[in-house]
Amino acid sequence: MKTDAPKVIKLSEYKQPDYLVETIDLTFHLDSTKTLVQSKMTVSKNTTDAAPLVLNGEELILKSVKINGEAFTDYKHDEEVHTLTLNRVPAGSFTLEIENEINPEANKTLDGLYKSGTIFCTQNEPEGFRRITFYVDRPDNMAKFTTKIIADKKLYPILLSNGNPIAKGDLDGGKHFVTWEDPFKKPSYLYALVAGDLGFIKDTYKTTSGRNVALEIYCDKGNEDKCHHAMESLKKSMKWDEDRFGLEYDLDIYMIVAVDAFNMGAMENKGLNIFNSAYVLADQKSATDGNFYGIESVIGHEYFHNWTGNRITCRDWFQLTLKEGLTVFRDQEFSADMNSRSVERIQSVLGLRASQFAEDAGPTSHPIKPATYMEINNFYTATIYEKGAEVIRMIQTLLGVDGFRRGMDKYFELFDGQAVRTEDFIHAMSVANDNFDFTQFKNWYGQNGTPLLKSTSKYDEANKRLTLTLTQSFPANAPKDAKPYHMPVRVGLIGADGKDVASKVLELKTPTQDFVFENISSKPITSVNRDFSAPVKLTTDLSFDDQLFLMAHDSDSFNRFEAAQVVAQKLMLDLIQDAHAKKPLELNAKYVAAFGKVLADTTIDEAFKALSMTIPSEGILHQELAEIYYPETEAVRDFVMKTLATAHQDILLKLFTSIDQKGEYKLDPKAMGQRDLKIKALNLLSMVDGDKYKTLAFDHFKSATNMTDEIGALSVLINSNSSFKAEALKSFYTKWKSETLVMQKWLSVQAVASDDSAYDNILALEKDSIYDRTIPNLVRALLGQFAANNKVQFNHPSGRGYKLVADRMLELDKLNPQVASRLASGFKDYSRIPKDLQAKMKPELDRIIKTDGLSKNVYEIVSKILA
Ligand code: PHE
Ligand code: ZN
Q: Where in the numbering of this chain does the Peptidase M1 alanyl aminopeptidase Ig-like fold domain appear (predicted)?
């Protein structure tokens, strides 16, 4: 019998909790398979209704219940719906004691208390705490926590939880204990516990007001030397939040623990962040520049949550973007200040387009503040995070940096210590800025779909007047009653000499609006949506030559970059139709020449040049196709790269060889830009016929002294299907097989290999001893990359790619539904793929949805794909 569709949770049905927990004292008797949890809570009623006390609890063995010290038996433990209902509890405040047992080792969901290798750790956002003990497990229930951890002293010398350590000692039988107290009230999702025989590094930080904070980063023994970049990043984050937002850290100790088995990137538990080891561990030899950059940003992100997330948290999970959109905006600003602002902005927009725009146009499209969900874990999305950050950025653009800061100050003044809604954030922004009217702006929170923006202009020579017309509209999947957005559109007018003659932020509020610029002495070129001020899809009346002009002159680096993308995208979309019609392909000569000009331009820095050499990805092109032609898209991209590379091989080679890497290894933006440029040049060169540049790539691979070059060259060898490929893969494996983070990269480059061998290769790699399907990073590196980024092989006409991913999803769903559900995103193109592929994909989707005992996680995504 097929299980019923899971219940839909609705924001409109929000009700305050019937009971609140004021304090909770936890005692853990840690054991790998039989951990005893004792919980003692003070509980009080929060409603006048005659409501029973309903606690959440999942996979828990209930041992005993006491109220006010007396055994209590008037309860019902329903393991189907995961609740413990206590009837006729006392009217006033009372103490509730519960004992239960859990099995951390058997817990492969990586939610609640589990083991990552030999380390005990926890993950409680959003609803993991109910896998530890029975609780009112929702973010508007905030309590003071203390934790006593009892464990074997040899196996688990380090015992950590939130807050400050207040007691410790030895116990009989080789055991010891540590007691932790967190002075701040918090929701259960921020609770954490760690125990193990961990390595660590320590440092201190002095806050502006002169308090000393102990900083500690924990990891598997032997990895201590790889924690220094994370530590430096943490200190920079602490300083930055003081400087930019006046926010200081509030406890005496800040701890970070790196674990290999983790569902997400990292978690902001109060005073005790738990991280996926991929976002902590790095050294020159084993980590790429991208890894170093990502570590700095994720360390910052989790640190910034201490104020935006922890001190002020979410009332309910529909408010998730309240903390995530804001904290992503903060980490992006941090990265911009620590590195190159223009590179950071371009990278984050590229990321937004690749993932969020695709999501927002597909079957799981949702607003940044959804109105319903089945499984909240499915809503940790690019939309909530990245589009959410764009919405915050627009608020800053509308209010100015100082006005935004005043709004942040007001937000903390009004709501510190509370669990609030996105409306409360907007309210603070408004009252701190002369009651700025956000009424229409709030449409960004409730409407899904990427808005479309059109810009046209008319120049009136006689009156020296430029009229710019902006028109907004909605995509097909927007709500039927969608209302126009209030959007800040940053615009520049550029004169024939390449200099700005006007520049300003326009506020578009109506479907279409004219903006008049006076005293414009000659017809300018318009540069619209500078710095990507609104997260929209822009079309303009600019000609091909106008775009080439922007490519050369725009003072806004984002739009200078963008102009090249617009030109390339247009050409490539036409070429895809040509390829589909089996016409010969020919690349526009003007574009080839303009590309060469960028390569030869000595006034632009390496990082920007490397970015400008990036031509639109297959995924970006797919978004623009009514029917997706995977092989044609790939063939066109290869053709364009090969044509550009063949035409410009001399300058590309010069770029490659002129950057000398002999000196000291540095991680500054300049050095990172240089390495990126070298790899980008090599990647293009490898497309040129013949072996010459493939040999160059193999040399670069063999002589690499850092992972950026080593994996960069390896991926070039694989993409160009070079004859050195097998040898390079093998030597890389031999060198790195004991380092799982490096093996994840090795798996990924093979998972995205475009030739037909990728499929058999994946089957073989799954059997390799380095692979372990209970570690999400490894699953994502292999199957996740295959389904998301190897579109040609995943969409193989035989249907074998679909079957493989469906099989693995169903196997994984029994272990870890979150990982299984994220693999389903590979199927999201369903409605736009050619009929013969649909005929292969549909039976796999049907097979999944009809599976008995399917998780809500997978059910929700697959049912939306099939709808
Ligand atoms: N709250 C985490 C973050 O964004 C993400 C996360 C969600 C981690 C759920 C684990 C589980 O920083
Ligand atoms: Zn976050």
A: 449-540
